[in-house]
Fold:
Amino acid sequence: MRDASGRGVPSRGWVLAVLLLGLPGLAAGQGREIHGENSTFAGEGVAMAWGILKAASEDQSQVVIRIVPLSGVYAYTSVEGVDPFTQKRQEILGGHPLTGTLEIRSPRATFAEFPRREIRVFTAGDWHAGRPTLIIYYVGVPDTTPEFLTESALSAYLDAALTKLRERGQ
Structure:
């Protein structure tokens, strides 16, 4: 195509291809990616809080992520551990309905081999299409993650943190 001065004008298909190449997550058929930086997160229709349940040996300590939907937008979630160097992936939580509070536990030691955690959330349509709507990723356990010696202290903290996040979101 040529404009009025006779210069070439890129076709719409070419322009679309260039735009998609500039957005790698979208070009690959994946949703928006957000870097979760703190041990609490609220946004994009979800909230989550992290905590660590300490054990007698570090290998037995558990990293706990509690997730709650803030809206009815998302239907499912999954969690993967990723080695950022090899891109090898390990399923932490297979697809699970996100209808209420969801808790994911991982041995702390698994962060050595798979330090990146991707919390993937899906609308019903994106779930059936096999592509996440949103990926919230962390590189390791956030530095701000508190540690607890008892299950009851961990649970009380996670409940209080999520309550604050919900209140701020409304």
Q: What stands out?
A: The chain has two domains: 1-30, 31-169. Helices lie at 12-21, 24-27, 110-113, 124-129, 151-169.
